[in-house]
Write a structure and sequence with these properties.
15 helices; two-stranded antiparallel ribbon; Butyryl-CoA Dehydrogenase, subunit A, domain 2; Butyryl-CoA Dehydrogenase, subunit A, domain 3
């Protein structure tokens, strides 16, 4: 389990990246007079440490580990660029022709921050956020290339060197069938950053509104496969977003736990009080559960990358990458909030702990790569399209009572549209419990199961509940 692993990068995150992020957030990125994004020097200090870890060129398992560790510092202004760049790297390797791959892939894999190029994905438009099929940005053929024109409304990593942009080729059909996926090199111009967004969280990250005006672009694979290619890039982001949420949760637990052991009130450390211990046990079990399901997903990603995945692995990945992102991102916000509660008034002070930053970032993580309802609706469609209900029930170890409910959701569109969100929460929680037990973390598994899966569980009538809290906090990973 990653929680038990120490690495040089973990030390770098705490000693270099975290202090740099705290400094850089005091002066968020701004748009210079020349239209270029300007950052506080500390932002680049953090970036050099991130890129030097080799995170972009790492395989799936190592990439997940490094991203999880990085997220202990929050989004840090660099987790999003890492994730977007990783998605573009996969797209170039999987969908691009040799000429495009040889031209654009090497600078993305460069581990030297000052020489490396970073990727971004610009899909959202003012009138077409989750509804990508409503997008209006247009692509017009220009010899062997294309020209992109129109507005993208929410563009994170606005300072990137290579943009993935969805656009509708002129004359293409309506809806997602008519969406193409293109690579736009920053160096070739044809765009203007109108302004940078003033966001609740991820404040060290440059997010802007961008107007394209005949920007040169290159199709990432067959134009008619554009939506499918864009979704494959989003799936990389959804996978890594869950690791990011998990890192936020674990850092929140560490901050709350260490504070509770040191803070004395009423004659001793507050960690001895039952309500404080319950709060910490819930935080620890939730962080461990999110990590367990996200690493299960990581193993599927690794098998797909290696070419060893079965058809069932691929189908399970397609379902889980959306469901896991939905559950973990919501849990992260809740656990960061619990961390703030553990510190009391100190938890709201920006220079006392990173918890306010983690909380703000967690809320933004929730919206990235598709809102909760959109992800759940996509899972419902995929369950029907892939005839995958029995597969996911088996792979997740879901309780028997979920089966009839999930089958009804797939068979009855109105019922499914209203209830799939609750059902997917149960599905992912069941997987998390199974993974925790496989890791030997029985206490966290039991606490998680009672809180989320045991109908009618009442801690007040549970004679083992206080002991379960103690065992959860005492667990030492192997």
């Amino acid at each position: 389990m990653i929680e038990a692993v120490t690495s040089n990068f973990g030390e770098v995150v705490m000693q270099v990246i975290d202090p740099a992020v705290a400094e850089a957030e005091q002066q968020p990125p701004r748009l210079g007079a020349d239209g270029q994004v300007e950052f506080h020097p500390a932002h680049h200090r953090a970036g050099r440490a991130v890129w030097a870890a080799g995170i972009i060129g790492a395989d799936a398992r190592e990439q997940a580990t490094l991203l999880y560790q990085l997220a202990h510092a929050g989004e840090a202004g660099h987790a999003c660029p890492v994730v977007c760049t990783a998605g573009l790297v996969r797209a170039l390797r999987t969908h691009a022709d040799d000429e495009l791959r040889e031209r654009f892939l090497p600078p993305l894999l460069e581990p030297d921050y000052d020489r490396a190029q970073r990727g971004a994905q610009f899909l959202t438009e003012r009138h077409g956020g989750s509804d990508v099929g409503a997008n209006r940005v247009e692509a017009v053929p220009d010899g062997d290339t294309w020209r992109i024109s129109g507005e993208k409304w929410f563009c994170s990593v606005a300072d990137a060197d290579q943009f993935v942009v969805t656009a509708r080729p002129r004359g293409a059909p309506d809806g997602t069938r008519g969406i193409g996926c293109f690579l736009v090199p920053r160096a070739e111009g044809g765009f203007t950053i109108r302004r940078l967004k003033d966001k609740l969280g991820t404040r060290a990250l440059a997010t802007g509104e961008i107007e394209f005006d005949g920007a040169p672009a290159y199709a990432l694979g067959p134009v008619e496969d554009g939506f499918r290619i864009a979704v494959s890039i989003l799936n990389t982001s959804r996978w890594l977003n869950a690791l990011g949420s998990t890192g936020l949760m674990q850092r929140a637990f560490l901050e709350a736990s260490s504070f509770a052991q040191e803070r004395e009130a009423f004659g001793g450390p507050i960690a001895r009080f039952p309500l404080v211990r319950e709060n910490l046990a819930v935080m620890r079990s939730e962080a461990a559960a999110a990590l367990a399901s996200s690493m299960h997903l990581t193993e599927l990603v690794a098998r797909i990358d290696e070419g060893s995945a079965t058809e069932q692995d691929v189908a399970w990945h397609r379902i889980l990458v959306n469901a896991n992102k939905f559950v973990t991102s919501l849990a992260a916000t809740q656990m960061c909030r619990r961390g703030i509660e553990a510190l009391g008034g100190n938890g709201t002070i920006e220079d006392f702990s990173p918890l306010p930053r983690l909380y703000r970032d967690a809320i933004v993580f929730e919206s990235w790569e598709g809102t909760h309802n959109v992800l759940c609706a996509q899972v419902l469609r995929d369950l029907a399209k892939l005839d995958a209900v029995e597969l996911v029930l088996d792979r997740s170890g879901a309780p028997a009572e979920l089966g009839p409910r999930l089958r009804r959701s797939v068979a009855d569109a109105d019922f499914g549209a209203l209830h799939i969100r609750r059902q997917l929460d149960t599905l992912v929680r069941a997987l998390q419990v199974a993974c925790l037990r496989a890791e030997g973390n029985e206490a966290a598994a039991e606490l998680h199961e009672r809180r989320h899966l045991t109908r009618g569980h009442d801690p007040e009538t549970d004679p083992d509940y206080a002991d379960l809290i103690d065992r959860t906090l005492a667990f030492e990973p192997k």
